[in-house]
């Protein structure tokens, strides 16, 4: 057995290639960015050719950086960003230079027309597709059929993001259950494409790739791929998984009731379970897990770290200018620690990017509530941190009505680097908050684990627990928890009011 595996975290902004040992130790990584283009309002596209270039560049740089013997690499796997649509012809050639990514919203009309004659609740309860429906791949394909009929007629296969890269690596076209579950007509409980929805959507069944397990070895590198990427032809390629499920896997969600919070630009509470968590009011988004028989369900807020970044950029310019070599966020945390629980009775709603299923309307927008002449910069910063935490607590409470969670919860993502914020979360959630050495590497670790199991280096996913080394535990302070529970009720009332105001503002015929 060889020594190493490569994991690719294939994100919206770029690809990170990471080298792992057989026992799950991360040795080195290399990141290569690429651009998103916005040719029209609502169109968010990337060039699959850029993805491939970034894979090649990051891999070669990783080998140089790590000094590892490339002949000791057993296999690889990719965690890929979701809801991608890459149409290719019968020869595997791209039919478009660019492909829409997950956030592309051009198919709103197609979605509206479809659900004018079909039950959206029935569709959601089968698919678990809880993002805005027009973001899902099926509706983007319906847009192609209507707006680019000549191209649509040439489609032989439609691939997801990581599945297209897998094709370039191996010459084989497959997808896995986790990625297929975001296509818009995957039956979660039956574990297959639903032919009736495919027919109703006017999408030919034969253009969608065969679904295999995430750990399935779909092939080894072609001679052409080997030459371009710099790896031997005998390197094995596992099918991989969608980013949400790979992050859950790397975040220790490998059993019923395991949960974690990803605290990044957006944020979500995630739980793994043997039954998908489905609710037509809240619409948790659900993906099949990379582990057969499990599901990944999540409630979220769209603007967490990005709201805190807005506070930094707009309200803390002095801190940024005077930070020198220090991280402005560290200085902001030091200021926030000077403000008490409740930030002197100041509330912050973080809906700067709109509302989720936990809100009364997607038109809600963020606000400070209760501003007073006595409030300081420290209060503004702390209130933002508390508001993001309270918004996620509301989303967590919805999840708790549908499933049972364990008593502790793991935090990953950039926000997890703040001890002050983790303690806030412990008190607001009423749960023990864990931070481990994995940090922001959950997606990479998930991909590495898939490759390890697929190549036979691991017999199952249980080694993930041993890889996580606890760095801190934030325990619940009962007195602080009681204070935050009082604040939570006022926060929820303020949020409902802001939702109603948001609808009224949205209806105004004035410039946005």
Give descriptors for this structure.
single chain, 512 residues, alpha/beta, seven-stranded mixed beta sheet, 38% helix, globular
Please tell me about this protein's structure.
By secondary structure, the protein is an alpha/beta fold. It contains 18 helices and 24 strands. The strands form seven sheets. Strands 1, 2, 3, 5, 13, 14 and 15 form a seven-stranded mixed sheet that branches. Strands 18-19-17-16-22-23-24 form a seven-stranded mixed sheet, with helices on both faces. It has a two-stranded antiparallel ribbon with strand order 4-7. Helix 13 (328-336) packs across helix 14. The protein is globular. 50% of the residues are buried. The mean pLDDT is 95.
Query: What does the overall shape look like?
Result: globular
- First and last CA, distance: 60 Å
* Sheet with most strands: 7 strands, mixed
- Give the overall average pLDDT: 95
Per DSSP, the total helix count is 18
Helix content, binned percent: 25-40%
- Can you tell me the residue ranges where pLDDT is under 50 for at least 5 consecutive residues? none
- Strand tally is 24
Task: Offer a concise description of the structure.
With 512 residues, the chain is an alpha/beta fold.
């Amino acid at each position: 057995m060889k020594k190493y595996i490569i994991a690719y975290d294939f994100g919206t902004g770029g690809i990170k290639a990471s080298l792992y040992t057989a026992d799950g130790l991360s040795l080195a990584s290399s990141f290569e960015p690429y651009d998103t283009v916005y040719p029209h309002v609502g169109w968010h596209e990337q060039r699959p050719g850029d993805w491939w270039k970034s894979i090649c560049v990051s891999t070669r740089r990783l080998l140089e950086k790590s000094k590892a013997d490339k002949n000791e690499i057993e296999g690889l796997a990719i965690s890929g960003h979701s809801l991608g649509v890459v149409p290719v012809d019968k020869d595997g050639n791209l039919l478009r230079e660019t492909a829409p990514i997950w956030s592309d919203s051009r198919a709103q009309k197609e979605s509206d027309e479809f659900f004018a004659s079909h039950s959206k609740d029935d569709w959601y309860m089968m698919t678990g597709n809880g993002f805005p429906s027009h973001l899902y791949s099926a509706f983007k394909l319906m847009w192609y059929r209507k707006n680019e009929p000549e191209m649509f007629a040439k489609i032989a296969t439609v691939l997801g993001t990581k599945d297209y890269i897998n094709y370039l690596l191996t010459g084989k076209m497959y997808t896995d259950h986790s990625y297929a579950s975001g296509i818009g007509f995957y039956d979660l409980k039956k574990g297959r494409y639903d032919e009736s929805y495919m027919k109703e959507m006017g999408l030919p069944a034969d253009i969608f790739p065969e679904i295999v397990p995430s750990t399935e070895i779909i092939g080894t590198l072609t001679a052409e791929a080997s030459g371009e990427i710099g790896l031997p032809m005998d390197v094995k390629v596992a099918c991989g998984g969608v980013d949400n499920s790979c992050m859950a896997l790397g975040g220790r969600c490998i059993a019923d009731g395991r949960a974690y919070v990803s605290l990044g630009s957006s944020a979500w509470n995630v739980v793994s379970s043997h039954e998908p968590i489905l609710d037509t009011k809240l619409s948790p988004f659900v993906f099949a897990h990379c582990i057969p028989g499990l599901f990944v369900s999540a409630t979220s807020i769209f603007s967490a770290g990005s709201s805190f970044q807005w506070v930094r950029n707009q309200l803390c310019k002095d801190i940024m200018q005077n930070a020198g070599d220090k991280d402005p966020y560290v200085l902001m945390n030091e200021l926030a620690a000077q403000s008490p629980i409740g930030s002197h009775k100041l509330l912050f709603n973080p809906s700067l990017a709109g509302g989720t299923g936990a809100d009364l309307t997607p038109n809600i927008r963020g606000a400070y509530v209760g501003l007073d002449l006595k409030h300081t910069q420290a209060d503004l910063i702390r209130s933002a941190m508390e508001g993001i935490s309270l918004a996620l607590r509301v989303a967590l409470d919805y999840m708790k009505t549908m499933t049972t969670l364990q008593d502790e919860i793991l935090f990953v993502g950039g926000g997890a680097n703040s001890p002050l914020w983790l303690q806030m979360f412990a008190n607001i959630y009423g749960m023990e908050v864990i931070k481990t050495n994995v940090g922001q590497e959950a997606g990479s670790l998930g991909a590495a684990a898939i490759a390890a199991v697929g190549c036979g280096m691991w017999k199952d996913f249980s080694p993930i627990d041993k890889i996580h080394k606890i760095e801190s535990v934030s325990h619940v302070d009962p007195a602080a928890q009681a204070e935050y529970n009082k604040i939570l009720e006022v926060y929820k009332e303020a949020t409902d009011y802001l939702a109603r105001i948001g609808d009224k503002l949205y209806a105004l015929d004035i410039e946005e």
